[in-house]
Structures are given as C-alpha cells and as structure tokens.
# Entry
Amino acid sequence: MATYSTNEFRAGLRLMVDDAPCAILDNEFVKPGKGQAFNRVRLRNLLTGRVVDKTYKSGETLPGADVVEAELQYLYRDDEHWHFMHPETYEQLAVAEEVLGDTAKWLKEQDVCRVLLWNGEAIGVTPPNFVVLRVTDTEPGVRGDTASGANKPAVVETGATVRVPLFVDNGELLRIDTRTGEYVSRVKE
Amino acid sequence: MPDGPAEKGPAWRPRGDRVRWERRAGVIAGIRGFFAERGVLEVETPILCARGAMDPVIASFRTIGPDGRTRWLQSSPEYAMKRLLAAGSGAIFQITRAFRAGEAGPNHNPEFTLLEWYRPHYDHHRLMEEVGDLVVSILACPAPRRIAYARAFRELVGVDVDRAPVEVLRERSQAAGASGRTAAELDRDGCLDLLLSHVVQPGLSGLAGSRAVFLYDYPASQAALARVAGTPYGERAERFELFVDGVELANGYHELTDPAEQQRRFESEASRRRIAGLPPMEVDERLTAALEHGLPPCAGVALGLDRLVMLALGIPCIEGVIAFPDAIA
# Structure
C-alpha cells in the first residue's frame, strides 16, 4: 500500500493510524513563524466511528489504508451473520452483527447498501438513505387526523420503532429517512 | 459571500469584492499614516535576493538570476533592512511581499504581505508599546496585555520550560494530540512549538483577559535573531510575539548586533540544516559585513499584514483577504 506524506493529506484520504483504518475529515497546516511546521488532522476511525485530532510533524508519512466502498445487496441473515451479495459478480459476503450496529434495524432483503471494506472485510454498512418498511405494530389509525401534528410509536417489519402521525395504521408501508430515523410519508402499494 | 476555502466562483474571478478590497486598502493606508505621523521612513528592499534565510524551519523559493546564479525569493526583508540601518537610515518600515515554500493553510499563503519595521535605540519592551499602538489603531481593540513565555507555559501547560525534562515535554505534546512518532521525534524546541500552537495560543486570551496578548522573553534556544540576556531565571531571548484571538500576528526582537554572535548563530543554523538533510544555504556575507561596520542598537518586528486584515474584517481564512490567493494566482 502506498504511503502518504503530510503535504498529500486531504479530506477523504484513508490512512492507517495506530493500526486502525481512518479517514481524514479535516487537515490544517499549523506553523509558528519561527518554529516547526505541523499538520493537525481530524480523523474518523472507520472501525469505531470515533473522531480524534492528531498532529504530525510536516513531512511525516503514514501508510494508506486499503479501504474501498462497494454497493452490495442484502440477502438474508442467519444466527451469526448478515449476508450480502455483489449484484454483478454474485460474490457473497458475511457481515458480523457488531459491524452493522444501528444499521441492522433498517435492513430489508433486496435493499442495496454501501459497504465499507478494509482488506476485503466489511467494517461498516450504511443503509439506503430512504427505506420502505411495513408497519407491524401500532395503535389503530385515527381517521382524518392529518393536521394535529400529534404522533405515536410504530414498530416496522425490521424491528425498528419510528414516530408516526396518528392516522397511520397496521399493515401500511412507510417511507423512512434512515439518517434521521424519521417517518417521511406513507407509500401506496 | 462565504469566506472559507470552499469559496468558489469562475476561475478568473478574484476573491472578495470591491467593498473588501477597499477595506484592505484602508488598513494599509492606516499603517502608512501611523508611520508618517511618527516620522518613520518607508523603504523598499529586493524581493529577489542573492541569499535566502538560513533558518531550517523556513523554506525559500529558488530561482535563477540573469548571471545564471541562484536567487531566492525573500522570506523576510530582515537582512536588507539591517543593511539600511547600518548605513544610517534611522527608523524605517516597509510593506512588502514575502514568500515561504510549503506554507498553505487557513493562516498561511505561500506569498504573503509583511509589515516590518525597525526602531534604533528601542528595546523589545518599547517596541511592544508601539506595536500595541498600531494594532489598537487598526483593530480598535483594548491595548494588548503582556505575559512572559515561561508564565504562560506554567499556567496553561503546567510545565517549567527551563527545567522540565524533554520526556515530560514529549508526554505533554502527545497529550495535546501529537502522534506517537511525532512526539518521540520532537526535540525540546519542537515540543515547545507544538505546545505553543496547540495549548498556549488557544488559552492565551482567556489567561490574559484580553483579545491581544504579547508573549515575551522566549527561551534562549528560540532566540532566532534576538539578543539573549541573563535574567534571575536564567537566559532569555529578548523576543516577543503578538497574538490576537489566538492568531500569531507579529514577531519582534531586541536585535542582535554583535557580529561574532551572529556568525555563531549562522553556523548553528547551517549545522541544523545539515542534520535535517536540507540544502545548504550560504551565509549572507553582506549582512555580516554590515554588522561589522556597526548596526545601531535597535528593535525590529515583522507583522503579518494579511492576518491583520483578517482580524480587522472578521474573516477567519487568509484566502478571504487576498484577491489572488495561491489557488487562483
């Protein structure tokens, strides 16, 4: 893998930092007029999601991280893993539950997710921005109440709970923004 | 119009607008007025120079002169201005372009504008007074407070800059964010530079209770071209820097005038360049000769004019105050 010098640092570059793949979020050149030059870098650890600030002497090099993104289709889950498939090569990939984290509650079979791979292993899964899921458990819908703004919890088929307007009924399909976890609209079948 | 580096427009279009260019011109006019009133002579010195800075932390741009020999784009007008002083110029100032290779960021453009001035028979404290007057006149801020370098480190970093072993400074540097390798490789002064920019600068205004703060009496190892004097606490460089809202704005010295000591500093810089694997830089023998002829006792200061404009206009990024920053030059 290539190494990168501080003068090649830029947002989005992926590097190995303390044995973990990290992405540069921000890179600032810091230099006292009569002193040592530094690069102060904000990094996201791609394994833990944590953001840290690190400072490197200008000219220092770091190894690049072999991290790639792939669009993979979610197929099914078993007791240990969630299984994905590349839509063109049909290659399959098993992803452990802890890698999915919060994403798991939005995953429905056939949906295409963005999977981050480090040395060929999945280290992160981002669900589609919008998913369509069926309501499996909520209080019966209140007809005609489209204006009050009041809401109630509803459980959807993947197990997630979202706040929905009072008129939503069991069995309906909902469009949900996975980035905020919020209800967007009902979807006609 | 947004002010960040993301500020975009057609590639031909300079940054900012008429109002902003007028305000920058207003700051420059204010500076000229300030010095005219005080009888300080405006001078000009070459940008294209036969000798570059020897300081290993300053990288100069290199080019070729008509005689086929190397020329350097000045990183500061210091050497030539000292030759003017030795020739009897009296108090002088200039506003000039200076260049530093590899310096680019929110507070750095590789080509930038310096205001530099010298006051014969001033020491660094008297010059701080005048720098304060100028900055107050441009920024309309309260007069800067003064804090000794050692006190700032004691109160903000919790270390004694004279006695703390380098291991402790490395630990503090790592705690301030330095990578393990960087912390291990930094020498004493490197650690102090890191701690100054990461810990002291952000805390300085709070400690002093003022937007503008002078740090003064630097460790002797960071003297650059300042005199070193014995104090009850040990040797101190008669050097100061001005920080406004945590931004390094000016750097000044009670100037070294002793040619033998100047020669030793040049030799030490040359050996640090060798150790760092940097290209050798010849000593400016015209400066050395001027010092031998006799430089009057004086104090001098360089102030980053672009940063002063940033502070005056409330713009957080240097690209916002330069019509043609490096990206579109």
